[in-house]
Design goal:
Length: 113
C-alpha cells in the first residue's frame, strides 16, 4: 500500500510539470489505474476485516446460528461470495489481473454494505 501511495503521489507531482502534456494521455491511464487499485484494495481490506470478525462469531457457535438465523443466512451468502472472489484472485494473483476480474469492485462494494 505504501508503494501504491507513493506512485499516486508521483502522478500528482507529474501533473504539475510543464512537460506533463507530452505524456498526458498515458499519465491519465495510469492515474485511473492506480486510483482503481486503491479503491479496490481499500474495499477488499474492509470486507476482509468484517468477514474475519463475523466468521469468528457465526462459525464458532451453533447457538449463535440458531439465535440469529437471518443474520447467519446473510453471513453465509456473504461468505460464499467473498470466498468466490478470493478463489478468482488466487487464480490470478497479479495486481493488474485482479482489477480485470469482471465486476470485482462492484461485488466488494456490495459486500461492504
Amino acid at each position: 500500500f505504501t508503494q501504491l501511495d507513493e506512485h499516486l503521489q508521483s502522478m500528482s507531482s507529474m501533473k504539475m510539470s510543464p512537460f506533463y502534456k507530452s505524456f498526458e494521455e498515458e499519465g491519465q491511464v495510469w492515474d485511473k489505474r492506480l486510483n482503481d487499485f486503491r479503491i479496490t484494495f481499500d474495499l477488499w481490506m474492509d470486507v476482509q476485516r468484517r468477514w474475519v470478525y463475523l466468521e469468528g462469531i457465526f462459525c464458532s457457535s451453533a447457538d449463535i446460528q440458531q439465535l440469529l438465523p437471518n443474520e447467519f443466512n446473510r453471513f453465509r451468502t456473504i461468505d460464499t461470495e467473498f470466498i468466490g472472489i478470493m478463489k478468482k484472485v488466487a487464480a490470478r494473483p497479479k495486481v493488474q489481473d485482479v482489477l480485470s476480474i469482471e465486476g470485482v469492485q462492484k461485488q466488494l462494494e456490495r459486500l461492504s454494505d
